[in-house]
Amino acid sequence: MGRLPRFILALVGLALFSAYLSAQVPTGKIFGIITDEQGTALPGVTVEASSPKLVGKGTAISDENGVYRIFALTPGLYKVTFVLQGFKTVARDGIIVEVEQSVKLNVALPLGAIEEEVTVTGQSPLVDVKSTVKGMTMTKEVFELLPRGRDFDTLLGAVPGVQNEPMLSGISVDGASGSENMFYVDGTDITNVYTGIRGQGVAFEFVDEVQVKASGYQAEYGGSLGGVIHVITRQGGNSFHGDVLGYYSGSRLNGKERDILRLNPYDINVAEYVNYQDLYGKDKVDRVEAGFSLGGYIVKDRLWFFGSFLPVYNITTRHVKFEPSLIEGDYTRRDTFWNSQAKLTSQPFKFVRLGASFVSNLNNYKGDLPPRDGTGSPTDRWSDYGYRYPYWTAAAYADFTFGNNLLFSLRGGSFYNNTTDQLVQPTEPLYSHGGMGNSVFPNIPT
After folding, report:
1. Which residue, 38, 328, 369, 406, could crosslink 321 as a Cys pair with Cβ 3.0–4.6 Å?
2. How many CB atoms lie within 10 A of CB 189?
3. Distance between CA atoms of 228 and 210, rounded to whole angstroms?
4. For residue 117, what are the contacts with CB-CB under 8 A and spacing of at least 6?
5. pTM given for the model
6. Per-residue pLDDT tens over the stretch 336-390
7. What are phi and psi of 143, to 5 degrees?
8. For residue range 176-210, what is the model confidence (pLDDT) as tens digits?
9. Are 227 and 217 in contact (CB under 8 A)?
10. What is the phi/psi pair of residue 319, to 5°?
11. Peptide bond between residue 324 and the one before it cis (omega within 30 degrees of 0)
């Protein structure tokens, strides 16, 4: 086989492989047909897509059939401009592009002087004609208005068919268990390989968009029998923006605990309602979260950056009276989370777009708490216990666009989690047995 056939074969293989990769990337595209007012196709129309979320601009030129395609667009709100000499310039504003969405945008250019421009606002297509996916996408502007917790998955219940089910390992999509979902951050799979649940948290200050696919998604998500959750992190722009923020929560803000049902520790054949706060006192909990974020440009329309640092300090103190020795004392556990995020996006050339992102949830704890009911050992090394949990996700991409019909997309990512630095090493094996007893809450009080 000569050099030319081998080169052509390699190019076809690379194109096919790139097409497969592009189906998995967290970007969208705009395509359509450009005609004159009589419906005749217009070739040679220059099309530009710009957005505060896109470094540089997406460009294309319509072919002999008036067809244009703009690939690898970061999710966001776009303005698309159509320019051809001898025709009025037409601008379509407010075009929404979501993750993996193909937006069809057909335009008819009226005759007129080149300096004239027609702008149409708020005409974004509502239906992705290329997709069969059932789901929902929430942008930063939307979820900032909704009640939520400190992590992205606390908002997923706003999607029809999605709810938090503790007995099903967390997020349940259309009745599937939490271990049947797949989770992605900037295109990198963060699903825990052992349990199947979400393997990493992402604070809302790091998130720009969250998408939930409940059904109808592509075959590359074959590992999912439930839903597919995409998280897109924030990035810089052509203007500087940032936040300084802080949160506090703790026992000082909590009311009295509720009564709970338990088996009597002295007679497991009797069930009773008790209030642990009355019996053992109230744990003292202080959780402080404070940090900052900053985004902007290093070179306008060429190189953007965004970074955020959001540590969390959680201190829990418990007063325990051990049974039957009646020895008592205060015990403290300190949890620290070093949450951070960084992202670089660049368009060094008109046909090349590059990016890299990093999200970290490194956390550790020192000290542990005896059981509230005093069944622990007063001689145990409670203050010495501790672990370290490194969690991080890295992703990088390079998109090369050549005309209307050719896109090379190279992407890679890594998700890492571990348990390290066990502060108290076991000296002998620990055996345990779990199971149901003969009593299932008999004599339940009314």
Report:
1. 328
2. 17
3. 11
4. 88, 89, 90, 91
5. 0.80
6. 999 999 999 999 998 999 999 999 999 999 999 999 888 889 999 999 999 999 9
7. -75, -10
8. 888 888 899 998 999 888 888 888 888 888 989 88
9. no
10. -95, 125
11. yes
Domains in the chain, please, with CATH? 3-121 (2.60.40.1120), 134-233 (2.170.130.10), 241-417 (no CATH)
Q: In 3D, which of 393, 153, 203 has the Cα closest to residue 312?
A: 203
| Contact assessment for residue 114 and residue 122, using Cβ atoms and an 8 Å cutoff | no
Which of 132-141, 232-241, 360-369, 421-430 is the least confident region? 132-141
DSSP 191: B
Residue 345 · residue 236 · CB < 8 Å: yes
Task: Return d(Cα 384, Cα 365) in angstroms, integer.
Answer: 10
Q: Name the residue type at position 65.
A: N
Contact 169, 195 (CB under 8 A): yes
Sign of torsion over alpha carbons 141, 143, 147, 152: negative
Q: Find the angle CA(379)-CA(381)-CA(384) to the nearest 5 degrees.
A: 165
The arithmetic mean of pLDDT across residues 135-163, rounded, is 80
Contact (Cβ atoms closer than 8 angstroms) between residue 69 and residue 93:
no
